[in-house]
Amino acid sequence: MAVAEQERETVRAQARWVHSSARKARLVTDLIRGRSVPEARTILAFSNRAVAKDVDKVLRSAVANAETHPALHWQGDDLVVVAAYADEGPTLKRWRARARGRVARIRKRTCHITIELAQGVPTSAAAGVPAMAAPEPAPVEEPELAEEPETVDEAEAIVDEPEATEEPEAEEAEAETSEPEAEAETPEESDK
């Protein structure tokens, strides 16, 4: 069976010889791929990367191409970033003088940024999740304390417990009454 694939109509814009390395530009283009145009503009507006301004210019150019295309006349807010990538451009080689007559190579890298737009729903799975949502903490299980095994049988312990609680109280009461007498006797005996 042959599956007939419909080729999606896309509109693209490209900026060539942008003064940034392709690796730095890819970090920004990866953020907007699969997102709607308003969402991509918001991401680029709040990005700290310098190349985000160049990517935003290309995005605006692609939206303008889609809106002014004679056969399409698409609305900019209904579009989705289908493809966004940054290819390496030519590298400008410069030299800088160093100590003892040596030189250091300086590579001024460039890149070509391309963005393609099409109509449809965003394919990003993160569209429904808030950007600043905190992850739910995992439940912490408290470790159980290990009890020491008792050598006394349980039947004997039950019988002995009431007696054990009564005896110390009685002994303490007897000790309290006998202590003042013992203290009183000891100074008299030492005087004699």
Structural write-up:
With 192 residues, the protein is an alpha+beta fold. The protein has two domains: 112 residues, Ribosomal Protein L22, Chain A (Alpha-Beta Complex), CATH 3.90.470.10; 40 residues. 40% of the residues lie in helices and 20% in strands. A three-stranded antiparallel sheet has the order 1-5-2. The radius of gyration is 41 Å and the shape is flat. The model has no long low-confidence stretch (mean pLDDT 81).
Describe the protein's topology.
Layout: E1 11-18, H1 22-32, H2 37-45, H3 51-68, E2 79-88, E3 92-97, E4 103-108, E5 111-119, H4 154-191
Antiparallel strand pairs: 1-5, 2-5, 3-4
Helix pairs in contact: 2-3
Task: Quote the average pLDDT.
Answer: 81
Strand content: 15-25%
Question: Could you please say which CATH topology of the largest domain applies here?
Answer: Ribosomal Protein L22, Chain A
Largest sheet: 3 strands, antiparallel
In short:
The protein is of the alpha+beta class and 192 residues long. The protein is built from four helices and five strands.
Keywords:
192 residues, Ribosomal Protein L22, Chain A, 2 domains, three-stranded antiparallel sheet, two-stranded antiparallel ribbon, flat
